[in-house]
Write a structure and sequence with these properties.
mainly alpha, 2 helices
Length: about 90
Amino acid sequence: MVEAQTPCVLAITNADHNVPRIPKVRDVMAAHRQSLTTFTLADVGVDMSNRWYDVVELSIPTKETVCELLTVDELAQRLQEIAAAV
């Protein structure tokens, strides 16, 4: 439970150091066959009639990665650019 005074902004994410274990393929297939439970606001006890907050956005963050093959000279130049920017 988190308590905060309004207005406040909350962001919930999985950080890089919070990496779950990798499930086995058999477990993934078994989970795929299970039905997904959906809860309504009433099921979890949220009363929207006395609402003092707004849900602005709900999304699943995507992590995009870019892989580049660099020569030693290109790598040295990139590292110099990064060091100069800091």
